[in-house]
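Design request, tokens follow.
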């Protein structure tokens, strides 16, 4: 049995603790904040993410509280034209083995946190800000700001895009600023006109911008997330923004999209950041996971899913003694590297589909509208198909 020090108490870190505990190991989770909590709004979970949650024993709980989405709907945000839909029921669910759902980020975090608290093999420590690590042939240690170091057999850095563990291990500086700003708010569903309460994740595409919305919180809220390419050069997160500024930034969109945006009242803004994929995110008995390893723009809706896939992959590999941990970490890095790099690049490239104007937008609409359900399912299969072993899957 190994003692694994997990840095970061977000979705990826908690999922990792659950995964390794289910394999008979101990996990100590170090969270920098004063308490374990998760901010943010909606998370989309494709079947591959739910498959990972099944293997953590949490799939049924997530399906019970999630909104089960009927389709991914692509709209021309300027003309209001319904261009195409990717159906997510029937054939899709049979092919991929799970529904496509959305949950509130805090709901998923709570389920993982509760699973950790139920496990005698998981120890949760808050108020622990990591500054780096050291290691030798027998173990690895997390260095903490103002507190005693914590030592175990290995360290897993799940401490996000600004990871202190990555800073030492990879040393690639600050994240890449995308030049895109996203605005977010949630609206109580009773304030949403009935004709706009769609069981769909909907994209409204416009020149240099787009707008996504879907229900969360078991259908009690509508999550609004418009994005605009505005050339932002400095990263910031969660900054309140005036409602009129948001509406002005999306004035190019048509009537229905503007009706939805006008429902939002308390908006916050983020400049989107990611990092270039790297070949190596493992150093001996230290490895990275989730956004610390492969941060990606949210446009592929796979950030949480990939962290969950990371967690169950590590759980599978760490199935015996401590003497093979470095080799198992290297295998994990090799197994996860190419897939996550491909998704990172796809998320960046997606704005070429959503943000054209004029003739380019018309050509895009004609191309998408010609596709039916099965070709669209084929297009997303590499993303949505479950990864890894079926061991522990839903019975």
């Amino acid at each position: 049995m190994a003692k694994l020090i997990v840095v970061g108490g977000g979705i990826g870190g908690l999922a990792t603790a659950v995964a390794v505990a289910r394999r008979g190991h101990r996990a100590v989770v170090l969270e920098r904040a004063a308490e374990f909590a998760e901010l943010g709004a909606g998370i989309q979970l494709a079947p591959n993410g739910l498959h990972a949650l099944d293997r953590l024993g949490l799939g049924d709980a997530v399906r019970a509280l999630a909104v089960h989405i009927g389709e991914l709907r692509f709209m021309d945000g300027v003309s209001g034209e319904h261009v195409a839909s990717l159906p997510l029921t029937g054939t899709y669910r049979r092919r991929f083995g799970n529904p496509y759902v959305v949950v509130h980020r805090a709901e998923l975090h709570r389920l993982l946190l509760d699973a950790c608290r139920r496990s005698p093999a998981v120890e949760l420590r808050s108020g622990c800000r990591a500054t780096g690590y050291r290691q030798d042939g027998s173990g690895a240690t997390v260095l903490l700001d103002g507190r005693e170091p914590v030592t175990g057999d290995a360290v897993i850095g799940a401490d996000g895009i600004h990871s202190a563990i990555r800073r030492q291990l990879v040393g690639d500086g600050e994240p890449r600023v995308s030049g895109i700003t996203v605005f977010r708010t949630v609206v109580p569903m009773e304030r949403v006109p009935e004709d706009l309460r769609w069981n769909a994740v909907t994209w409204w595409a416009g020149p240099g911008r787009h707008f996504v919305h879907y229900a969360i919180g078991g259908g009690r809220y509508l999550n609004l997330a418009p994005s605009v390419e505005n050339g932002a050069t400095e990263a910031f997160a969660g900054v309140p923004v005036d409602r009129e500024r948001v509406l002005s930034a999306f004035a190019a969109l048509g009537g229905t999209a503007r009706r939805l945006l006008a429902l939002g009242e308390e908006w916050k803004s983020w400049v989107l950041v990611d990092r270039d994929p790297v070949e190596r995110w493992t150093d001996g008995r230290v490895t990275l996971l989730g956004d610390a390893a492969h941060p990606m723009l949210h446009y592929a809706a796979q950030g949480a899913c990939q962290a969950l896939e990371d967690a169950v992959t590590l759980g599978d590999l760490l199935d015996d003694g401590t003497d093979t941990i470095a080799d198992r970490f290297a295998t994990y890095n090799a197994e996860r590297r190419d897939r996550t790099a491909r998704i990172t690049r796809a998320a960046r490239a997606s704005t070429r589909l959503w943000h054209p104007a004029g003739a380019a937008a018309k050509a895009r609409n004609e191309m998408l509208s010609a596709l039916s359900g099965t070709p669209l399912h084929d297009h997303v299969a590499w993303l949505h198909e479950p990864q890894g072993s079926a061991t522990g899957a839903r019975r």
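Comment from the thread starter after seeing the answer: thanks! The chain has 13 helices and 20 strands.
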